[in-house]
Amino acid sequence: MKEEIKKRIISLRAFMKRQGIAAFIIPSTDPHSGEYVPEHWESRKWISGFTGSAGTVVITKDKGGLWTDSRYFLQASEQLQDTGITLFKDRLPDTPTIAEWLGEVLHSGDKVGIDGWVNTVAEVESLRISLASKELQLVSVDDPFNLLWEDRPPLPQSSPFILPLEYSGMSCSDKLTLVRESLCRNQADGILISALDEIAWTLNLRGNDVHCNPVFISYLFITQTDATLYILPEKLTAEVKAYLTQNQIQTKDYTEIENDLLQYKGNSIQLSPETNYTLYQAASTSASIIKQPSPIRLLKAVKNETEIKGFHQAMVRDGVAMVRFLIWLKENVQSGMETELSIDRKLYELRSGQCLFQGISFDTIAGYQEHGAIVHYEATPETSSTLQAKGLLLLDSGAQYLDGTTDITRTIVLGEVSDEQKTDYTLVLKGFIALSQAEFPQGTCGTQLDVLARQFMWKAGINYGHGTGHGVGHFLNVHEGPHQIRMNHIPTPLQPGMTITNEPGIYKSGRYGIRTENTMLVVPARETEFGVFYKFEPLTLCPIDKEAIRIDLLTDEEIEWLNSYHQRVYDMLSPMLTSDEQNWLKEATARL
Predict the structure, then answer these.
(1) Domain of 122, in residue numbers
(2) Per residue in 460-506, pLDDT tens?
(3) 277-284 and 121-132 are packed helices; what angle lies between their axes, rounded to 10 degrees?
(4) Of 364, 401, 535, 587, which cross-links 314 as Cys (Cβ 3.0–4.6 Å)?
């Protein structure tokens, strides 16, 4: 495979020479700024062999580099070996930016190429300024992989389907009204929606075009008087066509969007900075551009009563599957026959037996011992470890149900663990509980709460490189913005109705990883003379393994929180379990 990668890079360099560009930048995304992309747009993976979900490859006439974050340092180091592509550890103090590196290896006046379809407006504008400071020129060229990638996968062909009102809680027409009200406030004639989860939410449609994410490839253009869905026509069933007609939504071929923007007759178009650069250029030739985040991001992030009810119901069913899995795992690990891959299959089997199950919400991370230290580890037949009755298993998984999306991590004790592992496990738990207990005033953003989860680790000289929490979509993408909990500043305030994860962790390379994660709901707490306060309600229902806890490191308040949470887990799940399963859960959730 390494030799094949080298051949692909040679073919790209030949393309670059024909185009007169000295470097070409290949991001991980698609024309819709997706985190997870269909195979058709996995160009970065194709050119480099790196399979992580985040990273940017840069190829010059004689060099190559990959920039990725700390989640993938170990994985990228292994996969890039002998390819001629150097790993650059993004966000570390000594790592140059892409522009800084290109300034060192290129000559003044050189051209740097991008494909405008897979780079956002915000990215292009920032990169152009950075490159100009190095006397380099940024140019948009045709997608080279249309020529170079033999047997390139086609655009996805699956058909979208209708999400009934009993699950969505708000009609498509009401959602369009909210969007149009936003257009009036911004004095925009129309808005282009390119984010797939925003289109799916607005139209109350779901699809199967993106692995683990129930969305479909399309664009949506909304004006004050009409709406047009751009989608491959062969994807539309008679039922969906009738539904769109009923909601006064026209359809046009997916490939016509650029030309229609070039010929737009209105005065102004609102575009998100996350819109791809090619469509931004097309729109800006025919109308003035109002560059603002899509209003749908926040509308979608604040769940309605029906969606909240659905989350609660989905979490109960998911919790039942998790409990049955934990019982099975604790019994079968002694056999020495189970592997990271086999337990993934078992968990899928148990979840798929739950009603309204639609698939997994992301690829399961089942990391035994040292594999747990690889934050986004994914077992393969070549790497899958056999589990033994000792040490720790980090299991991060989730599911898609018609009424909600789940995301849960548990670090599971399989047998004897070291004192160091117990200490680290308890430090993670203390941070997890501190964030779970938080009460905060209206207007607080996730960045202001992030330290709660890290404080005990910091006192021990430990930190983790990923964010502490992300939004979770309602039968949509498991990673949802605009709110987050992380160290770098994310200004969006947390509001009642938002879902968000709580997932601190400790990762010791080559040894083990520990993470505990619940999905939570922001809810009102109280109102005092100092204003309105909010708090978190746990949505996830699953016992936290008590065997690795150092009780001497917990305060009485922390112990009481854990006992109360475990009582909630038992009360909610036990009615759906057999008597033997209830007995196991009663012990797993017994008071410390």
Answers:
(1) 2-148
(2) 999 999 999 999 999 999 999 999 999 999 999 999 999 999 999 99
(3) 90
(4) 401
Place of tokens 């004689």: 62
Helices 305-332 and 579-588: crossing angle in degrees, nearest 10, is 90
Q: Are residues 40 and 175 in the same domain?
A: no
Res. 376: pLDDT tops 90: no
- Give dist(CA 79, CA 556) in Å, integer: 46
Instruction: Give the whole-angstrom CA distance, residue 579 versus residue 574.
Output: 9
Q: Kindly state whether residues 127 and 167 are assigned to the same domain.
A: no
Q: From CA 231, how far away is CA 233, in angstroms rounded?
A: 6
Q: Answer yes or no: is pLDDT of 62 > 80.
A: yes
Please tell me whether residues 170 and 70 are part of one structural domain: no
Task: Provide the pLDDT for residue 74.
Answer: 80
Q: Are 414 and 389 in contact (CB under 8 A)?
A: yes
* Edge-to-edge strand list for the sheet holding 357-360: 357-360, 399-401, 404-405
For the chain, how many structural domains are there in total?
3
Q: What pLDDT score was predicted for residue 131?
A: 97
Q: Is the CB of residue 546 less than 8 Å from the CB of residue 592?
A: yes
Q: With H, G, I as helix, E, B as strand and everything else as coil, classify residue 393.
A: strand
Place of tokens 């027409």: 173
Regarding whether 186 and 113 lie in a shared domain, the answer is no
Residues paired with 57 in a beta bridge = 26, 66
Tell whether 171 and 232 lie within a shared domain.
yes
Distance of CA 334 to the CA centre of its chain: 34
Beta-strand pair 137-140/111-114: parallel
Three-class DSSP category at 591? coil
Q: For residue 435, which amino acid is it?
A: L
The helix or strand, by DSSP H or E, that contains position 220, with its residue range, turns out to be strand 219-223
Cβ–Cβ < 8 Å for 481, 35: no
Please state the length of the chain: 592
Q: Would 156 be classed as within a structural domain?
A: no
Residue pair 471/485 in contact (Cβ under 8 Å)? The answer is no
Residue 42: φ, ψ to 5°:
-85, 50
Most distant CA pair in the chain: distance in Å? 74
